[in-house]
């Protein structure tokens, strides 16, 4: 009894999977006129990677300017 129920459930899920895997419907003229959106790519962000020395230099500079002390007092929660 359990075996037949499991087989029936498996067949139902397999059939549903094939239904979702069918081809996409043909696009209409209104859909094809829509502009294509370019996906985000991390290499296009324009941010350059910093070396360890550059990050260390920024840290020392922030300590000397008092920026770290100001942030510590801001986020202390008082």
UniProtKB/TrEMBL annotation:
It comes from the Bacteria. Residues 24-53 are annotated as: Disordered. Residues 1-21 form the signal peptide. Keywords: Signal. Transmembrane segments: none annotated. Residues 24-36 have a biased composition (Low complexity). Residues 37-50 have a biased composition (Polar residues). InterPro entries: DUF4148. This is DUF4148 domain-containing protein.
